[in-house]
Design goal:
Strand order of the largest sheet: 7-14-13-12-11-10-9-8
CATH topology of the largest domain: TIM Barrel
Distance between the termini: 58 Å
Oligomer: single chain
CATH architecture of the largest domain: Alpha-Beta Barrel
CATH class of the largest domain: Alpha Beta
Radius of gyration: 27 Å
Largest sheet: 8 strands, parallel
Number of helices: 10
Shape: globular
CATH superfamily of the largest domain: Glycosidases
């Protein structure tokens, strides 16, 4: 049996032979060199707090932090619901909201800027500031974002100029755009006491472009790039394998844009620029950010390298790159924990895939994580029959759900809670993790994505303290199995630490795991735990640590005997009754509770409290709102509280939605909904369970929504249409699904119907489900 990353030791005990798969890591003798002062980044707010960036991580007020960035496009969501969605993101552990400013949406008509309603950039950023959410403004001028022309206005196509270049005529229009954005951002910057901490300049310059919306069927697409970059322009994120002979022009253009932004008043501690695929950068004036998409719609399905550990700072994804990697921290701006569907491709990203991608990326040394998208939306229309969507790329005309953790209508996809496990950990412990360097097993570079037997693992360590990261998942691979009889051997200069000290553990199929070692808890030293660290609370003046374990793993906590009094090894049964108290040799005390994975998935930290609930949480000052789909009974654990870990319940009156529907043939449906308001109902959702190709929704004769079928029911928020629905029907048309549809291989088997009688179109059920709301006050 071949194990290039470790040594297999066979231990014979009587007649029993047990194969232990021992995986080793040699810890560095010398700590990683981290240096500062070379980057033209950073800044202070009026209170004197300072944001700084060194060669490895970002710090705030002198304390290392790992920002959690979640993309949300304000212009793709109703203005009246922005605040609610910001609160959902905050509850998900997001600390920074990046957002695109799509030029075409704001200056659809040349010289006339629209900044009202869903385009009210200043209001959106002010709401982020109200809830203490940092923001990064992605100002373009080119954005992409699956918007028509990549966000460049249609009228720009008619001008005699070279877009995305230093053409003076082009820069004249960019200057006008930047000055308008600068006016909207005035007073909201970090330097003013606001929460705008960053600016992204352009996007994927000299790497990728979008097709112009003006196209002719069957003809090659005209791309949104300078003419001199036409031969190197790509679609989507990938490795750039063409020689770029105009790199100097690209870098100069990026520097020019940054200077223009600063002159327009857009001054932030951080500037970022796309760094992947040999894209143009801005010297030492901006952080080159990275990306990883395990299920890209623009490429053929194949196992990606993004579930295997590496040194991601030294060797970024989609390398080669155009910058000295040792100068910059690894900030991931576009991690594809979801993906947009197109007409011909409908890849599905699962929650396990999202978790594996991020555990691998953190373990590989990333010190900033960002998701594209974290929150989906609906692309606005240009008129009754014209759309801002990138239709030449085969996008839905309106839907931009993206399978994001929070979808098109603010509902959770499975990745929301899975990723929150990591965000809670980062929110409380990134000051320890950020300075830690990545340590990889010998021979890791020979690992291939189709290897199902060898453990995928790495550590991050500083001194002797750190975390081991493990992944037993691979995208586009359904044949993985549990990895059994594992143990780790961490070799330091004067110590070898074995995890566990006796016996072995199993990493279940598709699971990812992070284990601490030599972790300081007060003045006690946790030698290791076979449980993942989640968060820490102040429990009446005492530290209280929360861990969790996946099913199939036995939690074990082993402390250095010299640092604790009495018992030094604990093997609790995961659950709300697992709490144990540790007394340190220095006379201090702290608590440890080990949750089940299900309990951890329902865990949220609000105002220093732990809230465990299956409800969606909207945190506000001194209270939370809870949202339930279809269930008027709210169940939760609030800790610390007088009731301890007891499950509490609160019920609101149930509601029977008033609606009717009628089917017209097999392809058409009309729904009439009264929309009656109740204080205990936050929204109503129309749930349409159908089989077809594309479903379209119409109101007052206009297309208002669309949905590409992929096997899951279509759930539609009715709140945004409530006023019109009082006297109008919502009508639907569903295109039949053909047996030769090009995307069928992307769908789960149960979603592919029987085509023995030809094409299929079917409406199985129509429901309106209330989303209940209640409030808990502390």
């Amino acid at each position: 049996m071949n194990r290039f990353t470790g040594t297999i030791i066979c231990m014979m005990t009587g007649m029993l032979a047990m194969a232990q798969q021992v995986y080793e890591l040699d810890m560095p003798v010398k700590e990683k060199t981290i240096y500062s002062g070379h980057l033209k980044l950073g800044g202070s707010n009026p209170s004197g707090e300072r944001i700084e960036v060194n060669s490895y991580y970002m710090s705030v007020g002198g304390k290392p932090v790992i920002p959690v960035m979640g993309e949300f496009h304000y212009s793709r969501y109703p203005e009246c619901q922005w605040e609610e969605e910001i609160l959902k993101m905050k509850a998900g552990g997001v600390t920074v909201i990046p957002t695109y400013v799509f030029w075409s949406i704001h200056e659809e008509k040349e010289g006339v800027f629209n900044l009202e309603g869903n385009r009210n950039l200043r209001k959106f950023l002010s709401l982020c500031q109200k809830h203490n959410m940092w923001t990064v403004v992605r100002i373009g001028p080119f954005c992409h974002g699956e918007i028509r022309n990549g966000g460049l206005p249609d009228w720009l196509f008619a001008k005699p100029l070279e877009i995305r270049s230093n053409d003076a005529n082009y820069l004249k229009y960019v200057k006008r755009l930047y000055e308008e954005i600068g006016r909207q951002l005035e007073g909201l910057y970090y330097k003013d006491g606001g929460t705008i901490i960053g600016t992204q300049i352009e996007n994927e310059h000299q790497h990728s472009a979008a097709p112009w919306g003006i196209t002719y069927p069957g003809e090659p697409k005209d791309m949104t790039s300078a003419t001199y970059d036409a031969n190197i322009t790509m679609i989507g994120v990938s490795v750039q394998d063409k020689k770029i002979t105009t790199a100097d022009l690209g870098d100069l253009h990026m520097k020019t844009l940054k200077k223009m932004a600063e002159e327009a008043g857009i001054q932030t501690p951080l500037y970022t620029a796309t760094g992947w695929g040999n894209a143009a950068v801005i010297g030492e004036e901006a952080i080159p950010v990275t990306a990883a998409y395990t299920y890209p719609f623009w490429a053929k399905p194949s196992m990606s390298p993004f579930c295997m550990f590496k040194n991601i700072q030294k060797n970024p994804d989609y390398a080669p790159v155009r910058y000295d990697t040792e100068k910059y921290p690894s900030f991931c701006a576009e991690m594809g924990v979801g993906i947009q569907m197109i007409f011909t491709r409908r890849p599905i990203v699962t929650a396990k895939a999202a978790e594996a991608l991020m555990v691998r990326t953190l373990g590989s040394g990333a010190n900033g994580i960002g998701y594209y998208m974290y929150h989906g939306g609906s692309t606005p229309k240009m008129g009754p029959t014209a759309f801002f969507s990138d239709e030449p790329m085969g996008m839905p005309k309106i839907s931009y759900d993206f399978q994001a953790p929070l979808g098109e209508f603010g509902l959770e996809h499975g990745s929301y809670r899975v990723l929150r496990l990591l965000h809670l950990f980062l929110n409380d412990f990134s000051s320890q993790l950020a300075p830690m360097e990545t340590v990889l097993p010998k021979g890791y570079e020979r690992m291939t994505p189709d290897n199902r037997e060898t453990l995928r693992y790495a550590a991050r360590v500083r001194g002797k303290s750190g975390f081991v990261f493990m992944v037993n998942f691979q995208d586009h691979d359904t044949a993985r199995v549990d990895q059994k009889d594992l143990c780790l051997r961490l070799k330091f200069a004067n110590e070898t630490l074995r995890i566990p000290s006796h016996g072995t553990f199993t990493l279940p199929k598709d699971e990812s795991l992070i284990l601490p070692f030599n972790f300081q808890m007060e003045d006690a030293l946790l030698k290791y735990a076979t449980a993942q660290l989640l968060l820490k609370l102040d429990d009446k003046g005492m530290d209280h640590y929360f861990f969790f374990v996946p099913e199939g793993i036995r939690p074990e906590f082993v402390f250095d005997k010299t640092t604790v009094v009495g018992k030094h090894c604990y093997v609790p049964e995961a659950g709300l009754k697992s709490t144990f108290m540790v007394k340190t040799s220095g006379g201090k005390r702290f608590k440890v509770t080990t949750l089940t994975r299900e309990q951890a998935l329902n865990a949220c930290k609000v105002d220093g409290k732990l809230l465990i609930t299956s409800s969606m949480v909207l945190p506000e000052a001194g209270r939370v709102r809870l949202l339930n789909m279809g269930d008027p009974m709210f169940r939760y654990v609030e800790y610390p509280s007088a009731k301890g870990f007891k499950v509490q319940m609160k019920e609101v009156p149930s509601v029977q939605p008033e609606y009717t529907f009628r089917k017209v043939g097999s392809r058409r449906l009309a729904v009439r909904f009264s929309g009656k308001e109740y204080p205990q109902v936050n929204d109503y959702f129309l749930r349409l369970d159908y089989t077809g190709d594309v479903a379209m929704a119409f109101l007052k004769g206009e297309l208002v929504l669309d949905h590409f079928y992929y096997g899951a029911p279509w759930q539609i928020s009715l709140k945004r249409f409530q006023q019109e629905l009082t006297d109008e029907e919502l009508s639907f048309y569903i295109r039949p699904l053909r047996k030769n549809a090009p995307f069928l291989s992307d769908l789960p088997g149960e979603a592919v119907p029987d085509f023995s009688k030809g094409s299929v179109v079917r409406i199985d059920s129509v429901q309106v489900v209330p989303q209940y709301v209640t409030t808990l006050s502390w």
